[in-house]
Amino acid sequence: MKITAKGTSSFKGKMLLTGGVHAREYAPPELLMRFAADALDKYNKDADTTWILEHTEIHIIFYVNPDGRRKAEEEPNTMWRKNVDPGNDKCSDSTYGVDINRNFDFLWGDISGASKSPCDDDYMGTSAGSETETQALTEYAKSLFPEAQRKRDPVGQMDVPFGENIMGLYMDIHAYGGFTYYPWGHKDTKSPDNASLEALGRKISSFNGYDLWAGGQTDFQYPVSGDTSDYMYAVLGVASFGLEIGQAFYESCTVFENDILPSNLPALMYAAKVSKKPNSLAKGPDVMELIANIDKDGIKVTATASDSKLVNIRGYPDFETGDQSVAGIALSLDVHPDDLDGNNGRRVDMTNKGNGFQAIISTNGVPSGRHILYAQARDSDGYLGPVSSIFVVLNGSPSSPSSTPTGPGGGAGTWETIVEENFDSGYGVFTKRGVDVRHFTKAKRREGVVRIQEGNVQLQFDTSYSQYNVSFSAFFRASTNSKICLDYRTKGTWNEVQCWSGKKVDPQTWHDDVSAKFNVDATSLAIRFRRKSDLEKDYVFIDSITIQGKRV
């Protein structure tokens, strides 16, 4: 499957995702199918997803080993891993076949990471690339990634770095264990591009909480030779990664829906975001918050960025690419930074105010309607980070494609509904702030929910009410001190209305009776939902928000 959208860029990044290499690993193909569906559903609803698809080709092979998968389903007791190549017929009905992930033509035959015995689970095959599945994947990958960035002698030049200008990212999804892995896999030694690969591996793990499995890491498990990951990096010259997701080969639906899916969808989308120049963008700072408010002076933008937030993950020492300060954040309206021709009057450099960056974008000559605002941070070493974006609606407030709601007229003392949002189609009338806020078409046994880890969702609207009642549904991951907080502001500082703690409710269940009231006199009001906790990897889901107003 190829997923992309028509855009202004003539040169797109490319990401190749594969699953189902090992037949018994049921969850990886499903994760990739959900990722594809999520990306398609959010196009033109979520700003980041929209520009990513317009500037990136996402290629997905759901089942690299379809014949093996069929055997695994028909004979589940065999725990079938390999393909169904009968070989020399010397193995039993439950042990024949070739391990595709030991059959690729880079250091094939190294018995420290594969077996020569046809009946073993990690049998390497009769020769490098002997299997039709290996050949098909190899040829498809070669057709995607630039030939010019390959080495003439991958083995002889394996200690020579590819550098920071390569294009393309590959990721192979496996099960299970909770690991993000990258080269080298065949030996416990760092690759020559380790600074870039480890930086991106850490950032991917900042979303799913996985340990790092790579040469030079304390969690290096065992050597693997002739595998997809080392091959794609060493032979094709692309940034190459893999995930070991979940807790079992035949994964339970509960674990998949409640853990694997919500933690890995954002990890995959982040990988797509940097696929055009992964070895360089991985070293740059990430925009953590991007907020736009519209008034008579134009679009007032505030933003924060960090070089360390995503790369310095729990359980590992701080990393070298996170030591730099943020030197600046540049904005552009409707033109992606990659498409800017010099400055051409569309680039706006934000001013560092100490606690964040600020800028005003003039709206003179800008038509009313929805626009996309791009932001890209730069660190003190000159590295640019990934682009982040939000939708902005002129002649209204920043919002999703839906229009900003206003309450109907009514008499004093009557509760009137201003907003009802079930998140069935993206964020609806709300706007996400921060990189760790995600919409899911289905999670935690509900359709259309929003997960808040760090960041918030907010809404601004005109109003004539003076008392407000806000009700919503909440799902806490565990009995921790994580809180979901409701805030409001009329201008300037946010005011906290109330916070609800995960310690005081049953975890892993939806609570549909969460509500709070507050009074404020204003003609324009902003409301937001945020998570408050010292635990970085915790999160809260919300759904079914209703905002009512009353004239008192």
How many runs of DSSP E, i.e. beta strands? 24
Distance between the termini: 57 Å
- Average of per-residue pLDDT values: 89
Into which percentage range does the β-strand content fall?
A: 25-35%
Q: What is the CA-atom radius of gyration, in angstroms?
A: 25 Å
Q: With helices defined by DSSP (H or I, 4 residues minimum), what is the helix count?
A: 8
- What structural class do you assign from the helix and strand content? alpha+beta
Gross morphology? globular
Low-confidence stretches: 396-412
Estimate the helix proportion, in percent.
Answer: 10-25%
Explain how this protein is built.
- The protein is globular.
- Strands 16, 17, 18, 19, 20, 21, 22, 23 and 24 form a 9-stranded antiparallel beta sheet that branches.
- Helix 1 (27-42) packs across helix 7 and helix 5 (194-208) packs antiparallel against helix 7 (253-273).
- The protein has 552 residues and is α+β, with helices and mostly antiparallel strands.
- The protein has 8 helices and 24 strands.
